[in-house]
C-alpha cells in the first residue's frame, strides 16, 4: 500500500495530457460482452477500475489484453458465470455486467456493486428498466439474479436521471426484440460514447445525448475498433489544479464543450481560461473571487468536480457555497481540508467555504476517489508537506497522476507505507 507526499507551493508550467474517460471505460468494457468477436478500445486509461473489470471479463471466459493504452476484449468464449461479491464490490460500474450479460445470455448473477461512499446509491432504476424489458430480477444474499425467457423492447421513463441506469438499460435493450424508448435519460458524454461503440458493433440507437433514447434491438452485434473520449473529470481536475497554484498550464486532449460549466466558474473567479480545439489553457491569478456552485446533471456543474473545486475555493476571497444536488453525503473531504487549515463547514447538502486561507500541509486520508483529487489539489496549494493515505481510491480513476503532475513541476511522489502505518490508517 502506498501513500502520496506533496510539497506545496510550486507553480506548474507546461502541458498535461488527459487520459481516456474512466466513466466511459467502465461501461465500454462490459459492452464488449454483447459482441460475437473481439472489440478493440483505444485510449483506455491505465487505472485500477479498468484492470478489475478486465479480470472480471476473464472470470466469465473472455480474454482481456491491455497494454496500458489499448485493450482487446474477446467475448467469443464467454459464458454467464455467476459473479457474486468479491471483485464486483471493488467498483460501482460492475453493475454494467448485469445489463451486458442479460443482453447476451438472458441471464446473469452479479453481486451488488461497491464504489465510493457518497450517500445512498440505489440501483432501483436499473432494475425497473430490466424488468420492463421482461427480466425477472431478485436480490439474494447481496447478489442480483436476472433471468428472461426473452427480452422485449419497452418504453421506460426514469424517475431519476441516472447515468448508470441509462447505460445499463441501453446495454440490455440493444439485443432485445423490438423498440425500447428510454425517457428522462441522462445526457452525459459517456452515454454518447457507449452508444457510439454499440452502434459501431451494429446496434441501432438514436438520441444518445438527449433525454429520449430510441433503441431498435438487433440479433447480432460484432466486434469493432473504438477510440474512447477524453476524461472530462480528469481534465477538470487539472484545470482546477492550475488555478489553485496560480500556474499556467495547457490541458491537452480535452473536449472543451465537456467542461464548459467549470470553465465558466473559473472565469467567474477571475481565472483566465482559453479554449482551443482539443486543448485548454488555464492561467491562474493571485486574487480569486468566491463563487457559489450547484452540482447538476450534465451539462451542469459535475458532482465529480465538486470536491476538487471546494479545495480551490479555500483560496478565494469571501464566502462560497457549494451545493451537491446529486449526492447527499459527498463531503468526506471537508474534515480533511479542515485539518489543513481550511475554513469550511457542511450544512445539509452544502459546504460553506470562507477564504482566503493559506492551507498548511498535514497528514490526511482520501475517503473516496474525488476526495483524493481534492486533497492532491490542497497539497499542491499548501505550505509544507502533505501526506495522503487512501491512495488506492485515487488509483481507481486517475492514470499516472504523480508522473503527470511531476512533469509540469509539482513536487509529488509515492512511498510504500510501513505495516505500522497501514495498521494506524485501518484503525483511524
Ligand atoms: N439514483 C437512484 N436510483 C438509481 C440510480 C441512481 O436514485 O437507480 C440516484 C443516485 O443515488 C444519485 C443520482 O441518482 O443520487 C445520480 O446517480 P447516477 O446513477 O447518475 O450515478 P452513477 O451512474 O452510479 C455515475 C458516475 C459517477 C458520477 C455520477 C453522476 C460511473 C461509473 N460513475 O454514477 O462517478 O458521480 O454518474 O454524474 O459512471 C466518479 O467518477 O467519481 C463518480 C462517482
TrEMBL record:
<keyword id="KW-0132">Cell division</keyword>
<dbReference type="InterPro" id="IPR036968">
    <property type="entry name" value="Enolpyruvate_Tfrase_sf"/>
</dbReference>
<keyword id="KW-0808">Transferase</keyword>
<dbReference type="GO" id="GO:0008760">
    <property type="term" value="F:UDP-N-acetylglucosamine 1-carboxyvinyltransferase activity"/>
</dbReference>
<keyword id="KW-0573">Peptidoglycan synthesis</keyword>
<keyword id="KW-0963">Cytoplasm</keyword>
<comment type="similarity">
    <text>Belongs to the EPSP synthase family. MurA subfamily.</text>
</comment>
<dbReference type="InterPro" id="IPR001986">
    <property type="entry name" value="Enolpyruvate_Tfrase_dom"/>
</dbReference>
<keyword id="KW-0961">Cell wall biogenesis/degradation</keyword>
<keyword id="KW-0670">Pyruvate</keyword>
<feature type="binding site">
    <location>
        <position position="326"/>
    </location>
    <ligand>
        <name>UDP-N-acetyl-alpha-D-glucosamine</name>
    </ligand>
</feature>
<protein>
    <recommendedName>
        <fullName>UDP-N-acetylglucosamine 1-carboxyvinyltransferase</fullName>
        <ecNumber>2.5.1.7</ecNumber>
    </recommendedName>
</protein>
<feature type="binding site">
    <location>
        <position position="304"/>
    </location>
    <ligand>
        <name>UDP-N-acetyl-alpha-D-glucosamine</name>
    </ligand>
</feature>
<feature type="binding site">
    <location>
        <begin position="22"/>
        <end position="23"/>
    </location>
    <ligand>
        <name>phosphoenolpyruvate</name>
    </ligand>
</feature>
<feature type="active site" description="Proton donor">
    <location>
        <position position="116"/>
    </location>
</feature>
<dbReference type="InterPro" id="IPR013792">
    <property type="entry name" value="RNA3'P_cycl/enolpyr_Trfase_a/b"/>
</dbReference>
<dbReference type="InterPro" id="IPR050068">
    <property type="entry name" value="MurA_subfamily"/>
</dbReference>
<feature type="binding site">
    <location>
        <begin position="121"/>
        <end position="125"/>
    </location>
    <ligand>
        <name>UDP-N-acetyl-alpha-D-glucosamine</name>
    </ligand>
</feature>
<keyword id="KW-0133">Cell shape</keyword>
<feature type="domain" description="Enolpyruvate transferase">
    <location>
        <begin position="8"/>
        <end position="405"/>
    </location>
</feature>
<feature type="binding site">
    <location>
        <position position="92"/>
    </location>
    <ligand>
        <name>UDP-N-acetyl-alpha-D-glucosamine</name>
    </ligand>
</feature>
<comment type="pathway">
    <text>Cell wall biogenesis; peptidoglycan biosynthesis.</text>
</comment>
<feature type="modified residue" description="2-(S-cysteinyl)pyruvic acid O-phosphothioketal">
    <location>
        <position position="116"/>
    </location>
</feature>
<dbReference type="Pfam" id="PF00275">
    <property type="entry name" value="EPSP_synthase"/>
</dbReference>
<keyword id="KW-0131">Cell cycle</keyword>
<comment type="function">
    <text>Cell wall formation. Adds enolpyruvyl to UDP-N-acetylglucosamine.</text>
</comment>
<dbReference type="InterPro" id="IPR005750">
    <property type="entry name" value="UDP_GlcNAc_COvinyl_MurA"/>
</dbReference>
Amino acid at each position: 500500500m502506498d501513500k502520496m507526499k506533496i510539497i506545496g507551493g510550486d507553480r506548474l508550467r507546461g502541458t498535461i495530457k488527459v487520459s481516456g474517460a474512466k466513466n466511459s471505460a467502465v461501461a465500454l468494457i462490459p459492452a464488449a460482452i454483447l459482441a460475437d468477436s473481439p472489440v478493440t478500445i483505444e485510449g483506455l486509461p491505465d487505472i485500477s477500475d479498468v484492470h478489475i473489470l478486465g479480470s472480471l471479463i476473464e472470470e466469465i471466459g473472455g480474454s482481456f489484453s491491455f497494454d496500458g493504452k489499448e485493450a482487446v476484449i474477446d467475448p467469443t468464449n464467454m459464458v454467464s458465470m455467476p459473479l457474486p461479491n468479491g471483485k464486483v464490490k471493488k467498483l460501482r460500474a460492475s453493475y454494467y455486467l448485469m445489463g451486458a450479460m442479460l443482453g447476451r445470455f438472458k441471464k446473469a448473477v452479479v453481486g451488488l456493486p461497491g464504489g465510493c461512499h457518497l450517500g445512498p446509491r440505489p440501483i432501483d432504476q436499473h432494475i425497473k428498466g430490466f424488468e420492463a424489458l421482461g427480466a425477472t430480477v431478485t436480490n439474494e444474499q447481496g447478489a442480483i439474479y436476472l433471468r428472461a425467457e426473452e427480452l422485449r423492447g419497452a418504453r421506460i421513463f426514469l424517475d431519476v436521471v441516472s447515468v448508470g441506469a441509462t447505460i445499463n438499460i441501453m446495454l440490455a435493450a440493444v439485443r432485445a426484440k423490438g423498440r425500447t424508448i428510454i425517457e428522462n435519460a441522462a445526457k452525459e458524454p459517456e452515454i454518447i460514447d457507449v452508444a457510439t461503440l454499440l452502434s459501431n458493433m451494429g446496434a441501432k440507437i438514436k438520441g444518445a445525448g438527449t433525454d429520449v433514447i430510441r433503441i431498435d434491438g438487433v440479433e447480432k452485434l460484432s466486434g469493432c475498433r473504438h477510440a474512447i473520449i477524453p476524461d472530462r473529470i480528469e481534465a477538470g481536475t487539472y484545470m482546477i489544479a492550475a488555478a489553485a497554484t496560480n500556474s499556467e498550464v495547457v490541458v491537452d486532449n480535452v473536449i472543451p464543450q465537456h467542461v464548459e460549466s467549470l470553465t465558466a466558474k473559473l472565469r467567474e473567479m477571475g481565472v483566465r481560461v482559453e479554449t482551443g480545439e482539443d486543448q485548454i489553457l488555464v492561467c491562474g491569478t493571485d486574487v480569486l473571487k468566491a463563487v457559489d456552485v450547484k452540482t447538476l446533471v450534465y451539462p451542469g456543474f459535475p458532482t465529480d468536480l465538486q470536491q476538487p473545486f471546494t479545495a480551490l475555493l479555500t483560496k478565494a476571497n469571501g464566502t462560497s457555497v457549494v451545493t451537491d444536488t446529486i449526492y447527499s453525503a459527498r463531503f468526506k473531504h471537508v474534515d480533511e481540508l479542515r485539518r489543513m487549515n481550511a475554513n469550511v463547514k457542511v450544512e445539509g447538502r452544502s459546504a460553506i467555504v470562507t477564504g482566503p486561507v493559506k492551507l498548511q500541509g498535514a497528514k490526511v486520508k482520501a475517503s473516496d476517489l474525488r476526495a483524493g483529487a481534492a486533497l492532491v489539489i490542497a497539497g499542491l496549494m499548501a505550505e509544507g508537506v502533505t501526506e495522503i493515505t487512501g491512495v488506492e481510491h485515487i488509483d481507481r480513476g486517475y492514470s499516472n497522476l504523480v508522473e503527470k503532475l511531476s512533469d509540469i513541476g509539482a513536487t509529488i511522489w509515492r512511498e510504500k507505507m510501513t505495516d505500522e502505518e497501514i495498521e494506524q490508517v485501518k484503525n483511524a
